[in-house]
Every structure is written in structure tokens, then in C-alpha cells.
Amino acid sequence: MAEDDENPLLQPPSEEEYPTIERQLSSYNPLQTFHLAKGDQKHYQQQYGDMYFLRLAELKPAVEEIAAEAWSDIVIAGESVRRVDRVLDVRQGELCWVAGTVYMDMPLKPNILDDISKDHWISAPPPREKYLSPTGQDQTMLEDESGRLRLIGTPLQISMLVTGCIIAVMGTENANGDFEVMDMKVPDLPRQPQRWERDDGSAILANGGGKSERKERKERKAGGKVAIVSGLGINGEEGDTLTLDLLMEYLLGEACGQSTQHEVGKISRLIIAGNSISEGMPLDSRDELTDKKSSKKYGYDSSAYNPAPTVRLDEFLASLLPSIPITLLPGGSDPANLSLPQQPIHPAMFPHSRAYTPMPGSQGPGWFDSVTNPWEGDVDGWRLMGNGGQPIDDVFKYVEGDERLEMMENLLRWRCGAPTAPDTLWCYPFQDKDQFVIGECPHVYFVGSQPAFETAVIDGPVGQSVRLIAVPKFKETGEVVLLDMDTLEVETVKFEVFNET
Fold this sequence. Notes:
Keywords: DNA replication, DNA-directed DNA polymerase, Nucleotidyltransferase, Nucleus, Transferase. This protein is α/β, with parallel strands linked by helices. Helix content is 20%, strand content 21%. The strands form four sheets. Strands 1-14-15-16-18-17 form a six-stranded mixed sheet. A six-stranded mixed sheet has the order 13-12-11-10-19-20. A five-stranded mixed barrel has the order 5-6-7-9-8. The longest helix has 23 residues, at 49-71.
């Protein structure tokens, strides 16, 4: 009998009352920057070349202002530096500066002829890891509406440049017709909005009903956290999602003690930054597609389509949504359009989770917000901007090394979220405005599906401060990033399954 009294499993249930832990709410106010027109208003017949002229027209005044301030009083060998309007106005032996669009002439870059030739391969050749030529055949050009000018010089060797970024260069043309660069300027970070600037009138409070509630700035409560995860890589196979189940139980507070549950309760939103579904099978050749036409039924090939990954993703989201709001960005492997900006994944893919999306005609976002890639919006007053990783992965192919944070910093200083689009990155052919141009500097810039977690803070010329976050692939690392919405400090939580066999 004494042994029974000492055994806690045989004791009557305790009458102690445990405190109720409520999840902290956050202010959530997304932007519609990258939404495309619907239906007949969306066209693909126009030329892509107009995008570069739109980008140059929008960013040229900013980079010229910086260049004029830096070079207006410079005198070299008794000669003052003068500005020229077009690259073809550069004269040999004359010290000058000019602004334009960078074009990297790289023989190893992909072209449309390679895409056509893939139809005749039994197995398509793998994509190149880098576009850099081992024999030094790469050339850096500066172009505008008048023509192109080849650039050479030391500043080009120490600076990161890719096709599509706007710069100003100062130097002189030599006898070979090349422009020897002495100095270079970029547009740098744009204006950064103050915290709560966009929400001063009203804040959209993330609650179950999706209603908007007016709150003065002094009444806004901060102190929460935002969880950012990327590269879930769900393939629907048995045993594939054990680490994913650990993540779900952690976010729901089911796999931790009471002290950790209080910390988890501070996580006010989950942002999934692309590649929630694993990479699919490679595209079939034209001959294989012809052979399979006869096996299609109800509009799709049942032997090739596997619904398990999207079903598992929907179950994962539906399990979390009663407790935490979710922002879902598509990625390169997700069921969305492949060209940037990727539009939100259709609600039909989420029969269970779509119950948390707003009703037609309602105002404001829902508890489940399926958004574009790239995406930007205000969370707890801070401007957040991020993407699924495609722009950084493409820039990586142009440059030496693998400094992902440096690439992210340069994208912000170039004021362009996808500079290599449309040259080597598929995108929509904008005609009126290049939506990849960064109009306002974010407070937090995150990029998904990166090789490892990295973070840094960069500063701008007029007091801007940006937190950079490289979000690793959860499928490979088991890491989720937690962003403190008071201090913008970050930490990671790692989930790992130990195999004892």
C-alpha cells in the first residue's frame, strides 16, 4: 500500500488550476504590391525589353543624384568630371560619368535555343551552378536606350554586379573603346517608413473574425514574435513528416513545458516562405507527352499526378490555423505560376484551410493569408519584405562565392527585388511599371530556401536600418526562425529526429 502512495500514476488527479495561456495577437496589414491583373487584363504578348527601360527611368534620377553629389567637385589632372546624358555621348579621353543598366555578357548564360533543344534530349542536361566563364570571356556592359558601352577597371572586380541593376560610373574611354571605371555608385536604400506609419489611422488586428479595430499608437501592444519557416518540402510519403509534426506540436504548445508554452504563446504569426511542396518530377519531352495524351482522363494524367503532398500540407495548415494565423508564400516547387511575381496558391488546393480565408466582399486579410511571392506588408508596424529565394539563387549564379547576405544587401541597395528578371529569371512582362523596383525600404528582409541560417543588420545613408534574414530549408536543417517584434532580434529553434537503429 505504501508503494501505491509513492507512485504518482496511482494518485488521484490534482485539483490545482493551471493558467490559461492565450496567444498574443499582432497587427497585420499586407500590401498588394505584386498582385497581377485578372483575366483578360493580363497579357503576355508584349516585349520584355520595356522592363529595362521602365527600371532605368525610375531609378536613374536616384543614382544620378548620388553621383552628382559625390563627383561634382572632383578634378583629376586639372580636368573636371562632367555628366553625360547617354552612354553613346561618352568621348575618348574625356573624364565623365554616366548612368545606365548593367548587362553581363556571359557565354554560359542560358538562352531560348537551349530550352528548345531540351525537347530532343532523352534527359535534359542539368542546370549550371554558375554562369561564370572559366576562361575569362565574361564582359560587363552599361546600356541605355542609345546603346552599350563595355566597362573595365578595378571597381568592377571588387563590386557585385548582375544584369539588370542600375549604376552610375565615372571614368574615361580608352583607345580601344572601353570605358575605364574609376568609381561607381548605386541608388542605395530608398526612404524607410517610420514604424506604424501606415497603420496610424487604423490597424488590422489579426483575430478570429478578421475584423479591423481602431487603436491609437499608445494602446498598441508589442512584444510578440513572428515565426518564419521555409522549404518544408512535403512529398506525402510515409515517415516524411515526423520533423514537421514536431514543428506543429511546438507551435501549438503541445510538445513543451509550461515555461516554454508561455514563450510559444508570444508567437503571433507564422510566415511560410516558399517551397512547402517538394520538387516534382522533371518535365517530359514532347514525344513523351504525345504518347501520354491517350491516358488522360478528366483533364489530367492520373498516373503522373500525386495529390498526397498538397493533402498533407492542407492538413498541416488546418491543424495550426485554429491557434495561429499563417501567411503562405509560394515557391518554385509549389503549385503556383512559375514566373515572378508568383500569385497566391489557389484556395482550391486547401479544402480544409480555406475556411479561414475571408468571405467574398469582406475587408482585410483572413486568418489564413495566401499571398504572392515576392511579398511585403506591415506586421506590428514594421515593414517586412521577403521572397521564396529565386532572386537570390539566380544572383548566386552570376557572382563568385556564396555570400547570401551580401547578395541580399546588394539587392536592397540596387533598389530592385529581382534584377536578373527577365534576363535569366522568368517574370511577367510589365509595361507600365516595374513592380520589382523597391519603393520603400523594409525594416526586415527575409529570403527563403537558403543553404543555412544567416542574419545581419545593414544601415543606409540617411539612418535606414534593415534586418536581413536568410531562412534555411526546414526539410534539410529542421530550423525555424523567430523574429522578435520589439527589438527585431532573431533566434532559431531546431527540430531533429534521432535514429537509434
